Every structure is written in C-alpha cells, then in structure tokens.
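Same chain as my last thread, 474 residues:
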Amino acid sequence: MLRRTDFYIDGGWVAPLGPDRIEVVNPATEQVVGVVAQGTAADVDHAVAAARRAFETYGRTTVDDRIALLRAVIDGYTARLDEIAATISAEMGAPITFARQAQAASLIGQFARAIETLEHYELEALLSDSVTVRREPIGVAGLITAWNWPLNLIAGKLAYALAAGCTVVLKPSEVAPLSAMLLAEVIHDAAVPAGVFNLVNGDGATVGQSISAHPDVDMISFTGSTRAGILIAKAAADSVKRVHQELGGKSANIILPDADHATAVAAGVRRAFKNSGQSCQAPTRMLVHRSRYAEALEHARATAESIRYGDPADPATEMGPVVSGVQFERVQAMIRSGIEQGARVVTGGLGRPEDVETGWFVRPTVFGDVDNSMTIAREEIFGPVLPIIPYGSEDEAVAIANDTRYGLANYVQSADRTHALTLVPRLRSGRVYVNTVDATEMAPFGGYKQSGNGREEGEFGLEEYLETKAVITG
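reply #2:
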C-alpha cells in the first residue's frame, strides 16, 4: 500500500496543514491500496505562492532550457514505467497490459509531442517594420484532472504548460491520485526547479475550488464533468482568469450502409468499451441504417460477449471494473433507465457478470431499439454500455448525431472515404474520425457546445498557456 500523505510544494515534500485523509480503493478487489492527504485552502495558498515565485525565473528560461527539462522528465519516467503502470492498474482498475501500453505510455507521447511543438513554434514574429508579436507564458496554471486517464490527462496539460514557461499547481483526481504522486517523484529527480511544479491532493469542493478562485492563479485547465466545469468557471470568474475546459461527451458513430459492418461494428464496440467505457470521446452512440440494423445488433452482441473481462493483473484481461462503487451504481442506474424506457437488452444488463463476486465489474451491455430521446442516448454513462440507434437517411443520421448538448467527437464509417468526408462539415464536434476509431495526440483535442472550450495537444495546446503581446516601435 502506498501511503503518501505529504504534498509536493516548492521543490520538496511538505506536510499537509489539515488532518483529513483520503483512502484509495482498488476497484477490482475493493481493498484500500493507498492513502493521501486531503488538502485545504491554506495548502493551496502555499503551493500558489511557490509557483508565483518560481515564475519570475522560469518564465524567462529559454526554449532549449525547457526542452531539456521535458526530456529529463521523459527519461526518468520511462525508467519507472512498469511501476507506474501497476499503480494505475491498482488505483483505477485498468488491465495491466492496457495500463502499460496505453495509460502509462501516453505520458511519454504527450511530452514528446510538446517537445516537437516547442522546437518548431515561433514565439516571436514580425508583422511589419514597426509591429512585432511575442508569445509569452501566461503565468501560474492551475491544472485539475479526472481519474479515467490519470496521467494522460495530466500530461496533456503539464507538458504544454512547462513548454510554454508556466509554473503549475496540480490537483489530480482524489479517486486515482497515486500515479500522480509517482510522477511528482520523477519530476523531483529530473531536477525541475523548485516551485515550477506543485501538487496538492484533495477533493474538488475544497482544493479544486480554492485553485479555481485563487487570485494569483492566471489560468485553469480542467478535465472532468460538465457539471464540475460550470462550477469551476463560476469560481474563476471573479478574477477574470483564463479557463480551459475539456468536459463530457456523447459521441455518435455513424455507420453508413456501404460500410463493412462486421469490421466497423466490432471496432466501434471495442472502442466504446475500452477503459471499461470510461473515456470522454469514446463512440458511445452507434447509429446504423435500418436496412442493416439487425445485422449490426448481432455483430455488436458477438463482439461484446467476446471481450475478456476479469482480474486486471492478468496480462490477457481486456476489460477491468469501473473505477468505484459510486460509478458502478451510476452505471447500473443508467442500464435500468434504458430497460424502463423501452430499449432492448441485446447482451449484458444489470448486475455483475455471473462469475464475478468481488469488484465493481459491469456486464458489457448493448442496447437495441433505442430512441435518441432515451436517457442512455443523451447522458454520459461512463461504463461499458452502448446504445445502438437506427436511422433512415444520412440527413437523419447527422441530425441524431448533432442532437446532443455535447460536441467532443463524432465518427463516420464508410467504404467510400470521399463520401464520408462530405459529412464532416455537418457534424458539430471538435473531432471527427473517418474510417478509424483510434485517437492520436497529433490532432488538436477539445469540444464544441457543453464539451468545453479551448484545445489541447500540439501547437493549439501550447497556445492555451501563452499570452499575446504586441510590440510597436516608432
């Protein structure tokens, strides 16, 4: 068990200023695997003050200095990759193979992409003989992240904040904070200057609120639910700080009639159920033409029933539990609502799998006969539950895809790539995947509507942490 009840502030580990503690529970065993401290507003004040002091120096470092720092973090992190993957698996239930190859490894990709971006980005440009535009670090960045991809979400913010020359106060999710503590050790060993990176554990109502409202924090970058994002924006409003949010999603996967349905449906189901369905941009509404609907349901049933769930420590396991008892009950309530509102359970359903007695495992569930007005088609479930919705025309498919308060991603599958691309301008989302379901850090990431604002990754992600200054000479 990892018991780490101090915080990383101003280049060292310091005792918390409050007595409360948070237990971290392994969702596969329901046993406590770690303990961290619950931070207070005073802890946040301490961390922000350290970040503000450090910015006076770090904000003026060179591009080469910052690239060297990012590379040192990658080197130290890579050396501990197996340990970090095991910690992610224990704290949030990711199967160990997936934890290593995707969850833990994603940080390396994010930092490498930030280095590449910084190497080629023009921080100063001449607009005319008398006007120069400079891009300068915004200052102290407050980073607040979710539990579903605990280090990937941190890395997509932290790598670009450090690349820009910002200093950071991080609040990882209190549900899965242990891997972030290991990252703090890596950062310390990489000789990142004191105060540049600071970490305070705690819940959103206390630590998250304090960071969001703090007058000496210049921007907030948040990943999490739309409900929490609204609260953060309100808390930040009084200090007029920049607020960057990556929020919920209910992405549609439009499978056109000419697509290879055996391949497209199977890929869509597996992508929706990856990470136990706990991914914000997953294709969590499948839209299938009525002429091929029965066929699609059968392909989806067979795929869902083929997914190997079980012990996350087993390298062959493909799907683990959802992250907590609270999340398990939420997913069960969503499945129940689907049944009560008239959707047909094609496979799966309520309760744990029959051969599972311990752990918050959800039966991989596919719903047919779904109308887009049903709760399971409108709300983010964050579990291995997929509603499949029939449509009669492309216009109807596009209308269904856009009939949501979210706009994070959409997917289109077709044998005719050129035709599929004609749907892209009509889909209201920050990303559209055409004939693929694979994510990449090469593309900007962010959403329309209530899926948030701003973009992460690449030059778009770097610019979130930069201010624009015009220099006019006579």
